[in-house]
Design goal:
Layout (H helix, E strand, L loop, with lengths): L12 H12 L5 E6 L6 H15 L3 E6 L4 H14 L11 H14 L6 E5 L6 H4 L6 E4 L9 H11 L4 E4 L12 E4 L16 H10 L8 E5 L8 H14 L3 E5 L9 H11 L1 H6 L2 E4 L4 H10 L2 E4 L8 H8 L4 E4 L4 H4 L7 E3 L4 H13 L1 H15 L5 H15 L1
Parallel strand pairs: 1-2, 1-3, 3-4, 4-5, 5-6, 7-8, 7-10, 8-9, 10-11, 11-12
The structure holds uridine-5'-diphosphate.
Length: 401
């Protein structure tokens, strides 16, 4: 199991000493995180790493999963879409499914902790069914700068019961919510299998294993098959880049158990782009393998994140940390990570030719690609690493417990 002292040399000793000092004051405090999946997506990625380090420094931190029926996950994905701004027929939101799964979970799961952290909208109503004796935090990871008003009003019913709301960016704070709202930015773990430095022979092993040819420059997007990640848009951009430069597009998207739309979107990508699949210029990968993701991110000539909504975008952080040139949408949490032309390129998510030109610029200009790649790695250091995230949480716990 990982321990904090392994981060010596990656972050400063000062940061590590500060974490140890603050954690001492929280020794044996008991915290529970509740989310709706162990696998797939940014929340699971963060918790897999953060929970281990919290325990390592002596804060007893658990992580539980809210199980749900198919109807529950269909409803919560619709709510997720509506909170990201999609117009939705409120009749399609089955509040009974939403509430039933939460109520049942409250019977199976007894909460005696010193603090409860609820992640995203799926377990949000749990607070209504528990005997609340401690601070409850709602940690929202999604882009809800412009939520559908009906669904926003509905979920506020539950948010009002919380002590603190944590969001990833200033624009997600809501003036009409009389609950304290704070910002904590997500992070990546430089020592996880997804991000740890790997040598060329390991990279080649994974490229061989997944039959990924390297005869052409690779354009890569790593993302769940989700409408907000705009896989069809990435392919349209790629079609236009390919007219100028011979290259290959890889879309790598695993399945998250709390996202029932993925299969449908994957299937429509396949049926709309059979020509590219047949000629081998588009590769779709659905395997779940962190070292493969690591190897792909290190091999790509350009990493793309063409989202139309993005709470933060860990895939961007991961690529920046690996010193790769990134072309990403100027949306949500991405501009917190990329300054245009310095450590990556920002593009209008709806302007396909701008995105294609940015990719071509990187593919054509090796020196520019190298320059932004170097700045990319530096931009993640300390700011978006797990140690800073851990410290943000410890500071919050010290205030509220
Ligand atoms: N991810 C992965 N394999 C995939 C697709 C995504 O491991 O095929 C990981 C990705 O590396 C990142 C996380 O899932 O760590 C996605 O987080 P992000 O914040 O980018 O988006 P979210 O899915 O939470 O909207």
């Amino acid at each position: 199991m990982k321990s904090l002292d392994e981060y010596r040399g990656i972050v400063s000793d000062k940061v590590l000493a500060e974490i140890y000092a603050k954690a001492t004051k929280l020794n044996k405090k008991h915290i529970v995180n509740i989310s709706s999946t162990y696998q797939g997506g940014g929340v699971a990625e963060i918790l897999h790493n953060l929970v281990i380090l919290m325990n390592d420094v002596g804060v007893n931190t658990g992580w539980r999963i809210l199980p749900g029926t198919q109807g529950f996950f269909t409803t919560t994905k619709r709510m997720h879409n509506a909170l990201q701004g999609e117009a939705i027929d409120p009749e399609l939101i089955h509040k009974d499914y939403y509430l039933e799964s939460n109520e049942k979970f409250s019977v199976f799961t007894h909460i005696h902790h010193d603090c409860v952290i609820i992640h995203d909208p799926q377990p949000l109503p749990l607070i209504k069914y528990c005997d609340k004796k401690q601070p409850w935090i709602w940690r929202c990871h999604i882009d809800f700068s412009n939520p559908n008003p009906t669904i926003w009003e509905y979920i506020k019913t539950f948010i009002l019961r919380y002590d603190i709301v944590i969001v990833s960016d200033q624009q997600y704070k809501h003036k009409d919510l009389p609950v304290e709202q704070r910002i904590i930015m997500p992070s990546i773990d430089p020592l996880s299998t997804k991000n740890i430095d790997i040598d060329d022979s390991t990279i080649n092993y994974y490229l061989d294993l997944y039959k990924i040819p390297v005869d052409k420059p690779i354009i890569l997007q790593i993302s769940r098959f989700d409408k907000w990640k705009d896989p069809e848009g990435v392919i349209q951009v790629f079609r236009s880049v390919k007219k100028d430069i011979d290259c290959r597009l890889i879309l790598c998207g695993n399945a998250a158990t709390d996202d029932p739309e993925g299969v449908e979107i994957y299937q429509s990508v396949v049926s709309n782009n059979q020509d590219l699949l047949d000629e081998g210029s588009l590769l779709l990968i659905t395997a779940e393998d962190n070292l493969m993701v690591n190897a792909l991110q290190r091999t790509a000539a350009v990493v793309v994140q063409k989202s139309t909504r993005e709470g933060f975008g860990l895939t961007v952080t991961e690529a920046l940390w690996k010193g790769r040139p990134v072309v990403a949408s100027n949306i949500g949490g991405i501009p917190n990570q990329i300054t245009n032309n310095r450590n990556g390129l920002l593009v209008d998510p709806h302007n396909f030719s701008e995105c294609a030109e940015a990719i071509i610029r990187i593919l054509r200009d090796e020196k520019f690609a190298e320059k932004i790649g170097t700045a990319a790695r530096e931009s993640v250091q300390e700011r978006f690493l797990i140690t800073r995230h851990l410290l943000d949480y410890l500071n919050l716990f010290l205030e509220i417990m």
